């Protein structure tokens, strides 16, 4: 079992990546104390009253993220064929440099992946482990306090990376391997419970239909989260992810975004993985390299609506966006105050 003897709260302003863990929450963000996520609360707009469970701290590895914090999860893919970086961090040296850069920029979590989500050549468990196994240990040796997440659906991969220091298992395929949650319980790691439309891994959605996509997201992710806790995963180490574009067309992903308060109201911390995805591209008719503005708009809206963790390729831009949301909410002070005061 990876040992995490201490918890390190950050000393940055609350509501920013790495902000204070005992923060009372961003005003108006669903699910944080004193905000619409609390039972019967409203953000003041007609039709926004709802009930829900209050959010609590998220404890991963040595870190404690308070309910009002907005946390960036930086993507580092050890794959030769990822849709966005096209293999830029496939090599170990390049991947380690990317980790170092993301940590320096302020990412609270590093998400390491060894298999791209899209269809393609088969990647065996052995090959996935070759890509991510020893790499997790190398990252842990360089960065003792950063939260290390591994994007995998396989229990056998999860077992190895957890033993090497991973703090979080990011299951993007909806519990397709039920033993992965057992691994998280055994090693004391966190677990991401994702809605993937009940599809097998690396499957593109085709004419997916739902009576109510958000109801299906809530039912599925909450069920996975409750099962994980029943198996022994700590409740404060479980996140839920609506799974943008996984088992969904772009209209489904947009609906999941605007109805995020319904997922946040469950009380489970919400992770969103929207960075440069196809629903952004189809909304704007933008290619993969032209989706930053759309991604940041979706990020800001998701933060406003209750998401807490943001999986991102462009760390600096995402952190800036989230800090602006925190400032608008009144949860973070100005970085510098000159205008009208000096």
TrEMBL record:
GO terms for cellular component: cytosol. Residues 70-323 form the Pterin-binding domain. It comes from the Bacteria. One of its GO terms (molecular function) is metal ion binding. It is an enzyme of class 2 (transferase). Its cofactor is Mg(2+). Pfam families: Pterin_bind (PF00809). PROSITE patterns: DHPS_1, DHPS_2, PTERIN_BINDING. Its EC number is 2.5.1.15. One of its GO terms (biological process) is tetrahydrofolate biosynthetic process. Pathway: Cofactor biosynthesis; tetrahydrofolate biosynthesis; 7,8-dihydrofolate from 2-amino-4-hydroxy-6-hydroxymethyl-7,8-dihydropteridine diphosphate and 4-aminobenzoate: step 1/2. Keywords: Folate biosynthesis, Magnesium, Metal-binding, Transferase. Belongs to the DHPS family. Has very low affinity for the DHPS substrate 6-hydroxymethyl-7,8-dihydropterin-pyrophosphate, but can bind the inhibitor dapsone. Seems to lack dihydropteroate synthase activity, and does probably not function in folate metabolism. This is Dihydropteroate synthase. It comes from Frankia canadensis. The gene is folP.
């Amino acid at each position: 079992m990876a040992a995490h003897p201490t918890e390190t709260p950050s000393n940055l302003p609350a509501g920013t990546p790495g902000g204070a863990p005992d923060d009372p929450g961003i005003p108006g963000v669903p699910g944080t104390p004193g905000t619409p996520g609390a039972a019967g609360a409203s953000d003041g707009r007609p039709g926004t009253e709802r009930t829900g469970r209050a959010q609590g701290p998220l404890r991963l590895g040595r870190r404690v993220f308070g309910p009002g914090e907005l946390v960036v999860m930086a993507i580092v893919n050890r794959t030769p064929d990822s849709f966005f970086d096209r293999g830029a961090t496939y090599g170990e040296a390049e991947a380690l440099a990317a980790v170092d850069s993301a940590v320096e920029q302020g990412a609270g979590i590093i998400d390491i992946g060894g298999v791209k989500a899209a269809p393609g050549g088969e990647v065996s468990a052995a090959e996935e482990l070759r890509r991510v196994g020893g790499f997790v240990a190398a990252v842990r040796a360089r960065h003792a306090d950063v939260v290390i997440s591994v994007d995998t659906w396989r229990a056998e991969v999860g077992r190895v990376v957890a033993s090497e220091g991973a703090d979080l298992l990011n299951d993007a395929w909806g519990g397709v391997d039920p033993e992965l949650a057992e691994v998280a319980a055994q090693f004391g790691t966190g677990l991401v419970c994702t809605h993937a439309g009940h599809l097998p891994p690396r499957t593109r959605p085709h004419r997916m239909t739902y009576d109510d996509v958000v109801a299906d997201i809530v039912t599925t992710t909450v069920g996975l989260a409750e099962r994980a806790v029943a198996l022994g995963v700590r409740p404060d180490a479980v996140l839920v992810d609506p799974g943008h574009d996984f088992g969904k067309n772009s209209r489904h992903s947009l609906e999941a975004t605007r109805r995020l308060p319904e997922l946040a109201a469950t009380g489970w911390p919400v992770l969103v993985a929207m960075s440069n995805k196809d629903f952004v591209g189809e909304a704007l008719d933008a290619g993969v390299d032209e989706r930053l503005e759309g991604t940041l708009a979706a990020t800001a809206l998701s933060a406003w609506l209750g998401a807490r963790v943001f999986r991102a390729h462009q760390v600096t831009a995402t952190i800036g966006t989230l800090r602006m949301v925190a400032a608008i909410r009144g949860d973070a002070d100005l970085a510098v105050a000159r205008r009208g005061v000096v």
